[in-house]
Amino acid sequence: MDIQKYLQEKKRIMDSALDRYFPDPPEGEGEERFSGSLRKAIRHSLLNGGKRIRPILSIAAFEAVGGTGGRILPFACGLEMIHTYSLIHDDLPAMDNDDFRRGKPTCHKLFGEAIGILAGDGLLTEAFRLMTNRSSRDGLSTDPELILDIVHEIAQAAGISGMVGGQVADIESEGKEVDLPLLQYIHTHKTGALILASVRVGAKLGGASEEALRALTRYAERIGLAFQIADDILNVEGQATALGKRTGTDVSRGKATYPSLLGLQESKRRAAELVELAVAALEPYGPEVNPLRNIARFVIARES
Q: What is the rounded distance in angstroms from the CA atom of residue 296 to the CA atom of residue 221?
């Protein structure tokens, strides 16, 4: 399959859905006009490009186990909203202090630090409002117990036991010597947890069997770590114009990364090994999981 074409097609679907679920703020109408700057800041970050890897993984897993239709979209959009909130906060002066994201000024550079903080807060809560809102599911029935289970899983992946916890460990490790277990903890929580949740949410919504869910979980655990190792490598040897942000920042900040601990070549070897292990987890399945297989390989072949 043509993975670039597949990713572009799914990205178009996601961009359209995000635009629909979070439209332009109304001009001078109702109470929403008082939050116009906040809504503009959120749209700037949410619709400012991005590969949409997490929601696309969710859609691919949903379709791989037989899911059809748009039932996945509010949840896929919620995952992207949570990811975007994390990027807004990562870019803040108190954290990575970045001026550009995806080739455009970061949220706080355009709208100020206070609005940047609140835009992230707003996106995080908006994600859960969207996923639990009956009207956003376009009349498609979803078992309330399943929604509760999915929301719980996403909250755990995004919170102190997942992404936020990994981010704290990342910050506290700056400028210090770290060992491999700590580095793996940072990567599997800061990045891997939400990727894992994305795949599992899609699989659950699609009606995956326990066996299929276990296989997809193994797949997602491996590509989640591979994805962050690939990011570490791109920060060393990627092109700023392709990435849309500065490179070399991990070294200047003393970040805990695979290249800094193991070197570039060993980091590339480990990322490639993880991708092959991810693909191996899908061996019992046929062409229905080809998008997932190809996304795994794309993870370490990408240039941005």
A: 11
- Domains of the chain in sequence order: 3-301 (1.10.600.10)
Q: Name the pTM for this structure.
A: 0.94
CB burial of residue 265 (10 Å; 0-12, 13-18, 19+) = exposed
Instruction: From first to last of the 304 residues of the chain, give the pLDDT tens digit.
Output: 899 999 999 999 999 999 999 988 766 666 666 688 999 999 999 998 889 999 999 999 999 999 998 999 999 999 999 999 999 999 999 999 999 988 899 999 999 999 999 999 999 999 999 999 987 766 566 788 999 999 999 999 999 999 999 999 999 999 999 999 999 999 999 999 999 999 999 999 999 999 999 999 999 999 999 999 999 999 888 766 556 666 778 888 888 899 999 999 999 999 999 999 999 999 999 999 999 999 999 988 887 7
